[in-house]
Specification:
The structure holds 2 protein chains of 2 kinds.
Chain A lengths: L1 H15 L2 H12 L2 E2 H7 L4 H13 L3 E6 L2 E6 L4 H36 L4
Antiparallel strand pairs in A: 1-3, 2-3
Helix pairs in contact in A: 1-4, 1-5, 3-4
Chain B lengths: L14 E6 L2 E8 L3 H9 L1 H4 L12 E6 L6 E6 L7 E11 L3 E5 L8 E9 L2 E9 L3 H6 L10 H12 L8
Antiparallel strand pairs in B: 1-2, 2-8, 3-4, 4-5, 5-6, 6-7, 7-8
Classes of the chains: A mainly alpha, B alpha+beta.
Protein name (chain A): Transcriptional regulator
Pfam families (chain A): HTH_20
GO molecular function, one term (chain A): DNA-binding transcription factor activity
Amino acid sequence: MVQCASARLDASFAALSDATRRGVLEQLGRAEASITDLAEKFHMTLTGMKKHVGVLERAGLVTTEKVGRVRACKLGLRGLEAEAAWIETHRQLWDARFDALDKVVEELKLREKRDGPDR
Amino acid sequence: MGQIGSEPTIQNGTMVKRESDRELVVTRTFDAPARIVFEAWTRPELFMRWWAPKSMGVPLLSCEMDVRAGGKYRLEFGQDASNAFAFFGRYIEVTPGARLVWTNDEGEDGALTTVTFEEKGSKTLLTFHELYPSKEALDEALVGMEGGMPEQFEQLDALLGSLGASVGGQ
């Protein structure tokens, strides 16, 4: 599923292509903040900030959580995005290894059928 | 591990799990008795045929294994001898057809690797388990080696690094 991993990366890059969104990440790198806080800080409407946070969230770079009536945002990287890519990287390697191992095992089985067990 | 009753659907595919901050677990079922799968892990000429698949991008140049408790192993990867890098360590435990435990001594952050072979009918469930000394060591495993990490991901890392995003999360 290389496509899956790279689609996620594309989403990340799209999310990072905007200066405001990069600013938001920088901000959240220092401390969690609500959408309202962020909107004020970046002199934007609440709706505008919600959109930006939505993009970051879909890319897995930010996670949000409703706390009472406030939506708190924090960095989600190293959470979903990084973890998914990390697992995928390992899975690809082991998949390829084990497919090759299947072939070796198959040969050994045939040999054993022919010659009987070694030991 | 192999509980009876609420058996999850048997997956033939490779399963990778980050069991904890410091542990990686990979499982896969093979259509052969355990002794055969074990043999493919412990005979250098066989091991060399599958440990470095083409997609890894770096061939395995040599492989030496003295498969017994206390015995050493050494793997050399590279395009040729001039740029080879080695992985090496010692076998801590060797139970033929059932279990292998080895150290990874090439760096500070080497894992302890345990491979178990469980025969289930005519098949073998293989579990590859690595315990790293720290979360960071496991985070970095595979990074910068064998092109396992897509280039974009490294770029993304660099970009986020420059944004001051905290590496390693909370």
